[in-house]
Amino acid sequence: MREAFRGEMAAIGDGLVEMTQLVGFAMSRATTALLEADLDLAESVIEHDRMIDKRRDEMDERIVDLFARQQPVVATDLRVLVASLRMSDDLERMGDLALHVAKVARMRHPRPAIPTQFISTILEMNYVAQMIVTRAGEVIASRNVDEALELDRNDDEMDLLHRKVFAMLLDRNSPHDTETAIDITLLSRYYERFADHAVSVARRVVYLATGEWPEPQSDLIGDMPRPGGQ
Amino acid sequence: MREAFRGEMAAIGDGLVEMTQLVGFAMSRATTALLEADLDLAESVIEHDRMIDKRRDEMDERIVDLFARQQPVVATDLRVLVASLRMSDDLERMGDLALHVAKVARMRHPRPAIPTQFISTILEMNYVAQMIVTRAGEVIASRNVDEALELDRNDDEMDLLHRKVFAMLLDRNSPHDTETAIDITLLSRYYERFADHAVSVARRVVYLATGEWPEPQSDLIGDMPRPGGQ
Fold first, then answer.
1. What is the ipTM of this complex?
2. Angle of the B2-35 helix axis to the B75-108 helix axis, nearest 10
């Protein structure tokens, strides 16, 4: 019975790792659609998000099914299941954020949504997003607490990029129209939230491995510099 | 045994209803802090968010504890528990969004973050947020599917306000500096997400009552009008 339970829990872990790959791929393609104003690719990301949602629902069903059949009563096992539900939710939400990026690409098509000087920063944001989601997948598989805590550092990089975007938008020497400011503000937030959810996934792994939550995630928005001199 | 289970599930429902009240209150106070540039109030909302986080963690523990002791094997009971975990997560996230609003107020203090012409729209957004979170609480208590589906209509109102904010920002006759555009874009998104999570809570109630998910939530961002004439 315990053997069977462990086996099924491992399968649920594999499902979560697969979801990290799906949402990483979705964000990567959404970024390409955005930067290349590629409507077909944007549509494909949007369409594909349903599969990610479905994957999450399947994970839910498997978890409920496991409970019903195995009735784990050890607190640790129950925590694994609760955390698994939360992780699949984080991952599904990461898929939504990729979808939002794709929708900005679609909305502004055939014009690119991103002025040239933002391209390299958006590429960096996607690069960090890819690194962090890959690491989140590795951490789910390894349950390695040190690796999980490493993700905070990647998240700091993302926060720096997010601040950089605001600083660029506020640069008086290179003004932007309001539509661009709105698009870029939201896009930057989508990447930043994507990374936050990946960190949240890793934090749940720490919780599973140690029974304790790591220190709270730092929050960027309230600690944003005030480039307007305010 | 079944009686005891029902009783404890009802208590968990009460806990969720209480959370709707806490996050509604948090958003209401954050809005006041924002509009009146009230630093003390903003700090209080920020401080108070920890209590909401703690409340969510307590809900988790109670749910895990209920599983461990009662071992529900009926699929419906399991779905109730899974949905309860998700609802407490939605509600905790709504608390975070109130916190984000308070942080914008704190960041821009002593200057008000909101130009005068946006005040009434932000007040309306808070009004709809209050209505929708109150209704979400009622729906958790009543498990009334019709009431739950009503929330979609409130959410449509919120989406209209969100669009209106963008239209106002893009109005060439009344230009804004980029800092204001960034702040307002994010604030508007916080209110809109707050409502989304409340709808999500109500949708989980429908799922519990009927075993089926209602039609997908409409998504504003990708369907935003293109006031730039694009």
1. 0.87
2. 20
